[in-house]
Specification:
alpha/beta; 37% helix; 14 helices; 414 residues
């Protein structure tokens, strides 16, 4: 089924969608849509992107909801147009190792943003409020190499290590590299295949793609870009001043000692995020990296409640660990409002939105989807009881949909 064709049908939500399409983004507009089912907000998001070809940030309260939203929006517009920027809850990321899959998803999203590729970016509350290195700093963290460059083998090895790449025997997974004489095999996280760099003295002689199965070269390229594995980046000459800044504001403890050791050895980089203000003075909210975004919040009130709970957890954590809290590694949701010319706040309820000056309020009178899990009798009973409501019924199997149509006809359901 072509989901976006639903936006062409005559209905209340399509009328609202068409008005959203025609809003001029000359200054910040705040739109509120109440009684908006979650999947309907995703459908509107997908339609706006297809028509406007403009960056859209879809924000949910939690990483679980963001994961679900990412899968559904991918089904609607295709994976080529959707990026995922999941950020774990603060306490989880501090106490346990962060998800490698989530980290790689974030870095690939940043790569698309830096390259000005229009996309739908799905994130959670922690993601949209996250601070990142400036665009200039991120661009400097990308290794750009081409044939005939003067670039020593040892220098490339060092540059890969400080960007989080792991040295292995055979390069077969993303984010790794291996060394054999004058050859360095690299699997950049922003590429679908590894590459083999051949050095002649201090010059890059050739760059070739590698077949993972055979480890044989399969074709020449003139240049490649190698994106870092982590959002934090610093050079070896910066380490001394970073350590000095940390110790100036924090008493030496096991935690601080571990952080400094990690900084010195480029280890546990995913857990150094809270030290971002010490690692660089050039940082800004994630949203500022994105060109002219539309922000769509799924259940904005839940996002605010989640943010409030997170800030309380962070405060208690810093009090317990006796670290000096550099709270500017996150920003507040309300602080980023004016970084978007169009903010669309949704809610599944009828409640009003009091804290934001609204330009328009729509009510869609829709409800979240319900999974009947093959309980046809229960579904038919609901349809008969609620004759005054409109139902949108979907199924991945066309034959099953045909069966449902016949079942509704037999039960005199229009």
């Amino acid at each position: 089924m072509e989901y976006l064709s639903l936006l062409k049908r005559k209905s209340k939500y399509t009328a609202v969608y068409n008005e959203l399409l025609n809003i001029k983004q000359d200054n910040t507009k705040n739109i509120y849509i109440s009684e908006c089912a979650h999947n309907l907000s995703k459908l509107i998001t997908s339609g706006l992107f297809k028509e406007k070809k403009q960056n859209i940030i879809y924000i949910t309260s939690s990483i679980y909801e963001a994961s679900r939203a990412y899968e559904i929006i991918c089904d609607m517009v295709g994976t080529d147009f959707v990026s995922f920027f999941p950020v774990e809850e603060f306490i989880s990321s501090e106490l346990v190792a962060t998800s490698e899959a989530f980290r790689l998803a974030r870095m690939l999203t940043i790569y698309n943003v830096i390259n000005d590729i229009p996309q739908i970016i799905v994130t959670n509350t922690e993601g949209i409020t996250r601070q990142l290195m400036s665009k200039d700093k991120l661009l400097k963290s990308i290794i750009n190499i081409k044939t005939s460059d003067i670039y020593t083998r040892d220098k490339l090895i060092e540059d890969l290590i400080i960007r989080g790449y792991k040295k292995v025997t055979i390069t077969s997974t993303s984010g790794t590299f291996s060394v054999r004489g004058s050859l360095i095999d690299i699997y950049p996280i922003n590429e679908d295949t590894p590459y083999r760099i051949n050095f002649f003295d201090d010059e890059i002689e050739t760059i070739k793609k590698i077949n993972i199965e055979t480890q044989m070269s399969i074709g020449h390229v003139d240049k490649i870009d190698i994106f870092p594995l982590y959002e934090v980046f610093y050079n070896q000459e910066d380490i001394s001043s970073i350590k000095e800044s940390i110790l100036k504001e924090n008493k030496m403890s096991d935690k601080i000692s571990f952080a400094i050791e990690s900084i010195e050895n480029y280890q546990n980089l995913e857990q150094l995020y809270i030290y971002l203000p010490y690692l660089t003075k050039e940082y800004q909210p994630f949203i500022k990296l994105i060109n002219n975004p539309i922000c769509i919040y799924e259940d904005y009130q839940l996002c605010l409640e989640h943010e409030k709970a997170t800030l309380l957890e962070m405060s208690e954590y810093f009090l317990k660990t006796q670290n000096v809290s550099k709270d500017n590694f996150f920003v507040n949701l309300k602080d980023i409002m004016y970084d978007s010319k169009l903010n669309i706040y949704t809610s599944t309820f009828t409640q009003s939105l009091n804290d934001i000056k609204l330009d328009k309020h729509y009510t869609l009178e829709s409800s979240n989807s319900f999974e009947y899990n093959n309980n046809i009798r229960s579904m038919i009973e609901d349809l008969k009881i609620n004759k005054n409501k409109t139902y949108l019924i979907t199924h991945i199997d066309d034959k099953k949909l045909k069966f449902l149509e016949e079942t509704f006809t037999n039960n005199e359901i229009d």
